[in-house]
Amino acid sequence: MRSRTAARLDRAIFVCFCVIAFSALQYINLTAFAFATALLLWLAKLLISGREYRPQPLVLPSLLFLITAGIASALSFAPLLSWERIGSYALLPLAFVVAQNVKTSWQLKILVFLVLLSGTVSALRTGWQYAYGIGSRLVDVPADSLLFRDGIRSGDLIQLVNGHRTRSLQQWKAALESTRADPTLRLHVARQAPIAPLTSYFDFGIDRKDLDQWLNLPGTKVQRGRPQRATGHLDHFVRYAGVMTLLASLAFGLLITTPGNTARLILGAVLVALVAALFATVTRAYIIGLFLGCAFQLWLIHRRLRTAAIIGLAVCVLATILWVRKERGSVWLSAGDRFRVEMWKDALKLIPHHPWFGVGPDSVDQYGEHWHIRAFKEFDFRAHFHSTYVQLAVDCGLPCLAAWLWLLGGYLSFLNRSWKDSASWDPFARGTLLGVFAGAVIFVVASAVNYTLADSEVVAVAWLFMGLATALVRIEKEAQAQRHRTQLVVSAA
To answer: Could you state, in order of their start, the residue ranges of all structural domains in the chain?
Structure first.
């Protein structure tokens, strides 16, 4: 009976993993719920079946990181904000739950398939947003117009008019015709901020004559509305870029190791979709990070291509800088970069005063003025320190930062050792390990200029990949040992 119950729990846990693999980059609340469910089911299985815990790497630095972060939150200047932030940190055990419960290569293949499928679906949705539109954009709304008085601004995207969709110009014209006799209009408006392109949504009630007055103004123009920078299902382009970069790295690893033209064609199409969505975010750190990851993979797998990989990386980085400059204006020393540098300067003043457990995660949001954070006042904008390493030192203290660096260093060392032992593995296993390895390098590098731990979707995918890599290495070692035992039996016979 215990064995049957454990088997049912195993199946339920794997279903949770499938949900996580498909939802991690799109629906973080569903991901967190599925992870909590899998964790509880695993603990129940351990109690019921009495099965032993499989030893695995990185447990100690992970525990130290979570413990020190928890202490920092308990001692925080703003405990409520800190414990809310710890929720994203608490996704780290996902890696260990996955590593303990993924048992076969088929399960690995299903999870890899689902995570790439989810990324592809999201990328296609992003492509549809750019091709079809996300609203009808009012190019210029003069300040002396009745429409401006009603609250509508230049660049607003009208998505609904009295319940009629207006996400394309055809729908816009149809909606105007359908509501011709309506004296009042209810407009659902998407507004994209000029500095940080996040979208806010508003509902306005206006008189029909106000819209007609604007439409009759000379030079009035309505355009197809597109995202300023792609965000997918997420609320920020940086998060979306981080997720797409990790998935593209995995797809590239599988592409260069998988035999067969059909499989390569499918993986190539997936890679193109993911990279296109990544470029639509216009996020230079992750775009350059992907090029770095691809060059790193070629360096590892093709010795003869190492020089070409370095040259290709340099060319791609230069092209990216020029392209981002065209799309965003100033590439370096933009307003965002100056804000980042000023925050780092302020961090150097805070860290010596709170070296052991920091000020508490996100406490700077509440006490920034009290601690004389100049960037908040100079830029009239409140945000984090734009670096995971700096943020941890300020928020959680230097011991927590040391535990985090130990975790990342141990993870990269584990992946490096595993890659050196993977020469006899099958192509799927090698490609998966290669893509995860490059993704881990990208994650470590990008953390220097992005607060990756605040991006729940990014860390969820990163920890899922860590768990898959750990399970993959264990499964391959067990398979090798089984083959060795079989060879000994055959030799003895």
So the answer is: 59-129+232-488, 134-225
